[in-house]
Amino acid sequence: MQNPEFDISVIIVTYNNSGVIARCLTSLSHALESYTSQIVVIDNDSTDNTLSILKDADFWKPFSFTAVEQIYNNVNRGYTKGVNQGFRLSAGRFVLLLNPDVIFPTNPFEPLLSELENDDKVGIVAPQLRFLDGTIQPSCRRFPKKRDVVFEFLGLSKLFHKNPFFNGWRMPDFDHQVSRDVDQPQGAFLLTRHDVLAVVGYLDDSFPMFFSDVDWCYRIKKLGWRIRYIATVYVYHLRGASVKQKRAHMIISSHRSFVDYFSKHDTNWYDKCATRIIHLLLLTATPLRLLVNAKYL
Q1: Into how many domains does the chain fold?
Q2: CA 42, 170, 296 angle in degrees (round to 5)?
Q3: What is the pTM of this model?
Q4: Domain membership flag for residue 296
């Protein structure tokens, strides 16, 4: 993008987020006061009061945003397709993929933007995530390996939950208190440059919700960019405010996307055979997880 219209474009996909969206946008407005900003909100056919909040013109008046774009889907198109709708409208030099359950206690943008501006090898930056009580969320992961699914299925990842071999995907050896390069920060807050987005492309919408951000980070790193976790700034993350609403569907979707992620990046017959085994393990695990989470169904 040769002449960006804004400093930052923020993409937010909502679905039944009436309990958090006002707090998110209010705090975001304070954080963006020093920047020209474009807010793109995509609602996936919410059935609570989210739409009435977003469609109220008075709701937006106190905010500092330079421009607001709103898309109201008449069906739930899924998280990933919603994000891509927002990406297509984004006109900022920097683009932030933001969950609606994120709250900004302060302005985290200066050090994050500095990372992206001062090193063109950095493709994504993400801040520390915290719970509302101030404790740090373990928000970074390594790219998953097939052995991680096996260890999870056998219970070894829980038995040896602090072991970086048996539970390596979840990075138990990282306390999230120092800045470093990572594979995959949690998709709740991913900040990139528009020129990176132009090269890497949008999220792969064959992943309806889960693993689209993992796959995106994988593609970004594969093309030579680094991904930075910045521990010196933080935001609050309510973690899963939307996912908890349809737990059964989310469990099935996450298992399917796990297999699709491996299949997409398989390079030989050995990989393909291993993915088939992983598929069988996840098929076995799905009813067990549904039973454990029966109270949410």
Answers
A1: 1
A2: 55
A3: 0.91
A4: no
